[in-house]
Amino acid sequence: MRAIAKAAVVVPVVVGILLLRPSPVESLDDRVCDLLSGWVGHGQPSGQVAIVEIDENSLTRFGPWPWPRELTGFLARRILDLGAAAVVLDMMFPAVDRGAPAPSARAAEPVAPTRGGANDQALAEALSGRPIVAGYTLTFDGNPEAPPPCCVQPLPLAVIGPPASGKAAFFHATGAICTVCQVSRAAAGNGFLNAAPDGDGRMRHIPLVMEYGGQYYPSLALAALTVGRRPPAIEFKVNASGASCLRLDGRVVSLEGPNLMRLRFRGPRRTFPYVSAAGVLDGRAPAESLRGKIAIVGGSAPGLQNQYATAVDPLFPGVEIQATAIDNLLRGDFLRRPAYARLWELGLALALGFASFFALVLFRPLWGESVTLALAAGAWAGSAILLSAGGVLLSPLPASEALACNFSVLTLLNYAQEKKRADRTKRQLDSAQALAQAAIAQSELRYRRLVENVNDAIVMDDVEGRVVFANRRFREWFGLEERNLRGAMLEDCVAPEWRALVRDRHDRRVRGETVPDHYEYEGIRADGTRIWIEALVAPVEEDGRIVGTQAALRDVTGRKRMEAQYLQAQKMESVGRLAGGVAHDFNNLLTIIIGYSDILLREMGRQDPCREGLEQIRAAGEQAKEVTQKLLAFSRKQVAEPKAVNLNLVVAEAEKMFGRLIGEDIEFVTRLDPELGVTMADPGQLHQVLMNLAVNARDSMPRGGKLVIETRNVTIVGDPVDPHPVPEPCSYVYLGVTDTGTGMSADVKRHLFEPFFTTKGAGRGTGLGLATVYGIVQQSGGWIGVTSEPGQGTTFHIYLPRIGTDVAAEPLTSAATAAPRGWETVLVVEDQNAVRQFAGAVLESYGYRVLQVSSGPDAVALVQQHPGPIHLLLTDLVMPLMDGRELAEQLAAFRPGIKVLYMSGYSEETISHHGVLESGLNYLPKPFTPEALAKKVREALTNPAEG
Asked: Which residues, 6+ apart, have CB-to-CB distance to 906 below 8 Å?
């Protein structure tokens, strides 16, 4: 804390030094301001100032400097003749001209010499009555020598402010060099050159008003402005601290100090338009370059660097400094530092310094340094923005110096403090070395406990595969004791078919080869059971040499079992999709086979020799239809007609057929719950489930036995039957079918519900019975499980969702009626020619008038041209070009009231996609018999709902 307190004193000390402003600090501040001004302080030239340059070409053409004053006057007249608003002679005439005679204005040959002073008179005549400003020199060094009389016009200036501060607000001259009186009297406005640059040679400031002999005189720039633009009034405001501002014709010129204006340079050298003096004298200068502008006559040639030229800035010649000053006054565009700028700069340095101090103390080293650099960059950026936007110059030097000193001192103090802390820490570490050894021993003990109690098995072996360490879990798995652990081979715990792989990877790993470090294999436990092991293996190195391997082993038997079940479910789903895909083609074929068989059998006599063969064809068609329905039931894509069903009624209906189905040597027992709830399912499918389970039970009891069917209400909250998934807690109706047959093994149970899987001999079964049961239960929203052991019989557990108690069961069957006849017109649309012709023949045999087409567009065209009524549209659901649903919608537009009967051999999924299973729509599944077709057509014609 003492170090931090010492560092906190740095900022006020640095700010105090800056407040005193020693000479090096002031010089550095000027350079910083120059840098900032050069960066963003440039302005754009106004276009109202031009420079007539006495360059090297002019000196070569008209002789060395100084020129005869007659030639200077001639040059001034020529500039005015070209339309210049005013001429500023940026030169001094400190004494009577004693030089060479004047050369000709248009020739390089010298003229006859004139007497001394004649050139002064010639210049005076040239200046008289014209807007020309001539430069003179005031002195400020307190020279006691009496200055010669100077006929310079004072500035009509109104000073506004405290009288006591008036003197302090102006440059005060003690003498004037003004010996050529006729020149000064002839000039329209007499200015004074300020030939006193800043201490480092740069002309940053230029005085505007100077006081001499109780009167106020303008500088060269201000004199040029008053002559060229002639403002009606000039006011100069002063205050108690000596600060001042100048008001020119309503424009306020803020001054940096007493009567000083800081220049805003327009850019690099030769920014203003330059015209050679030789070109003006020779008449080659374009008039548009000087018209309406204030022309400054001056020079930057090496021959002009003497007492007769203004001071030269290292970057800008003296004539460009004066041009910049005039342009600043014309545009009101200049740099200024407010009266309290120094206090603002020091306050900012104090604030940023303390902000940096707290950042370096409170933040991490890198963050503290970043904040300090950001504050420094912000100070420079803020000064640049302020200067660029408003022309106000605030120096970022105080803030930068405060931040730099604060950062340096605080860094050194922090280093010393950290060094002391490091020394103290080292002593503490030395004193704690003994405790560290005890801690290491304790840590090893905790590590051993952790390894021993972890749920995974951890084992290490050597290059030969001998176990050198194993935790408790590994020893429990494989029946090893810690005392006889050494010498046991790791591969002895691996199943025989996996040992070669495990050994090969172990040998390659200890040789340094790249092998998979994560793999699975089967292990053999002490009791002979197998477990699946997931191994994560890594080599063990000592002194850069592999001395063995270490492995973390995890029992993943449960996961593998779940993966197998998932693959089984995927396989069954794939078969289901295949079954649903082929159902349509089979159903179309079966419609032809069964339908025409029925027609031919109905027309054929009982004694016809072909009748027996035809009946075999009809029976084969029915068997094929049954196989197709079983496949669809297994795939859960069979068209179902669910209704509220009481399982007791389904069992009672099926019981009528069990006598001749299961035989007399099997005892049939039912245990039905009289309070059984209602489920939503297809009664025909449930009847099919019972018949398949009864047949399966009969085949498992070849010497007789007992078949028990029971029902009850259950609420499942767990997993009563393994390995099937756990359903959500729900109310179910339970149907159990138990036999006392031979039972089945675990391997048989794994494949039990797969289609075409059977344990019966060839020709005794299709393997679709239990697959059909599985599909029907799944389609009804329930689930099925089985418990069985070899020789212990089998029980099938079926759970179907129970619906509300207020729903009554619907009757299972309806009275059979004969197929009715009709007279109406039926339009048959079917893309399969044989099916279409069969349906047309059947309907015509029942008295209907039939129109047949093979596609939807043909049907639309036929209906538009048919003059008579069309009562019913019998259409296939899925057809090319236009499906049945779209066809019905188009026909309804110009045949209102037409009835629609859809037929299809596709699965329920496809039919549902076309929206045919919606309530009120007429649908006939394929294959169908002639009687079924006639009944469905009659039902559709009498149904009040439209297709």
From this structure: 580, 583, 584, 877, 878
Q: By the 8 A CB rule, do 138 and 210 touch?
A: yes
Identical fold at 640-801 and 825-942? no
Between CA 679 and CA 287 the distance in angstroms is 111
Q: Is a pLDDT exceeding 50 seen at residue 501? A: yes
pLDDT one-digit tens code per residue, 317-335: 678 888 888 888 888 777 7
Residue 910, token pair as written in the block: 């496809």
Residue of 578, 590, 573 whose CA lies nearest to 905: 590
DSSP β-bridge partners for residue 549: 461, 539
What is the sign, positive or negative, of the torsion defined by CA atoms of 329, 293, 290, 85? negative
Q: pLDDT of 373-412, one tens digit each?
A: 888 888 888 888 887 777 787 778 787 777 777 777 777 7
What is the spatial distance between Cα 470 and Cα 481, in angstroms, rounded to a whole number? 10
Phi, psi values for residue 541, rounded to 5°: -115, 145
Closest CA to 219 of 191, 189, 258, 184: 191
Q: Which CATH architecture has domain 447-555?
A: 2-Layer Sandwich (3.30)
Q: How far is CA 163 from CA 169, 242, 772, in A?
A: 10, 11, 119
Task: Give yes or no for a contact between 244 and 326, defined as CB atoms under 8 angstroms apart.
Answer: no
CATH architecture of the domain 825-942 equals: 3-Layer(aba) Sandwich (3.40)
**Measured between alpha carbons, how far is 514 from 505 in angstroms, rounded to an integer?**
9
DSSP sequence for 150-203: ---PPP-EEEES-GGGTGGGSEE-SEEE---HHHHHH-SEEEEE-----TTS--
**Can the peptide bond before residue 930 be classed as cis, meaning omega within 30 degrees of 0?**
no
Gap between the Cα atoms of 428 and 883, Å rounded? 90
Q: For residue range 813-829, what is the model confidence (pLDDT) as tens digits?
A: 554 556 688 889 999 99
Domain ranges of the chain: 2-24+339-427, 42-331, 447-555, 640-801, 825-942
Q: What is the pLDDT of residues 606-660, one digit of tens each?
A: 777 777 777 778 777 776 766 666 555 545 445 556 778 888 888 887 777 676 6
The amino acid occupying position 27 is: S
Spatial distance between the Cα atoms of 911 and 914, rounded to a whole number of angstroms: 5
How far from each other are the two terminal CA atoms of the chain, in whole angstroms? 93
**CB burial string 803-829: b at 16+ within 10 A, e below:** eeeeeebeebeeeeeebeebebebbbb
Report which of 172, 208, 175 is spatially closest to residue 191, judged by C-alpha positions. 208
Secondary structure tally for the chain: helices H, strands E: 27, 33
Q: Which is nearest to 837 in space by CA: 586, 588, 585? A: 588
DSSP 482: G
Pair 904, 921: CB distance under 8 Å: no
- Spell out the CATH class of 640-801: alpha beta
Q: What angle do CA 102, 105, 111 make, to 5 degrees?
A: 40
State the DSSP H helix or E strand holding residue 388, giving kind and residue range, or none if neither: helix 365-390
Strands 643-645 and 260-262: unpaired
Encoded amino acid at 214, one letter = G
Helical spans, DSSP H, in 471-524: 472-478, 496-510
Examine residue 66 and say whether the peptide bond preceding it is cis (omega within 30 degrees of 0). yes
CA nearest neighbour of 266 among 337, 205, 333, 206: 333
Question: Among 266, 256, 135, 240, which Cα is nearest to 207's?
Answer: 256
Which 8-state DSSP code applies to residue 825?
E
Residue 370 makes CB contacts below 8 A (sequence gap 6+) with none
- pTM for this model (two decimals): 0.43
pLDDT of residue 229: 79
What is the number of other CB atoms lying within 10 angstroms of the CB of residue 212? 22
Task: Identify each DSSP E strand in 427-472 by its residue range.
Answer: 457-462, 467-470
Residue 121 predicted with pLDDT over 60: yes
Torsion region of 31: left, alpha or beta (phi above 0 gives left; psi -120 to 50 gives alpha):
alpha
H or E element at residue 531:
strand 530-542
